[in-house]
Amino acid sequence: MGLILDTNFVITAEREANARTVGRADAFLAAHAEDSLFLTFTVAGELACGQSAAARAQWERLCHPYAVLPWTIEVSWQYGELYRVLAAKGTLIGTNDLWIAATALVHGMDVVTANLAEFRRVPGLGVIGF
Fold first, then answer.
1. Which residues of the chain have pLDDT under 70?
2. Is 2-129 a CATH 3.40.50.300 domain?
3. Which helix or strand (DSSP H or E) is residue 37 part of?
């Protein structure tokens, strides 16, 4: 099964690695060693904004362990569908999280995140906490 890692997962894993501690991200990775792990184009962009990835080589190091799912026309359509559904309910989520959710739905994958409350607003999306 493929899983999409949210930005907060990658940042947590990076912090644990820098502190040389085994924490919740490491425990999750150990428990899901058989799963394929992915980032979305949006997560890769968010990581590029951070100070720990200010240099391109650092950013590539953060992204490298994972395949990055690209933007597609289907992802854009799913984004629009989700936007309309959530807006009608008054439960919109953040723009980048909406892109992540749309990508996950198109690819039939769950999202691994610490931001459970927001992602759980998305109908049909599998959300896994870490």
1. 53
2. no
3. strand 36-40
- In DSSP terms, 68 is beta-bridged to 39
Spatial contact of 45 and 100, defined as CB atoms under 8 Å apart: no
How far is 89 from 112, CA to CA, in rounded Å? Answer: 24
The two tokens of residue 79 are 């984004």
pLDDT per residue as tens digits for the range 50-64: 877 678 888 998 898
Structure tokens at 107: 């690819």
Q: Give the pLDDT of residue 71.
A: 97
pLDDT score at 12 = 95
**Could you state, in order of their start, the residue ranges of all structural domains in the chain?**
2-129
Q: How far is CA 35 from CA 1, 29, 31, 41, in A?
A: 5, 9, 9, 19
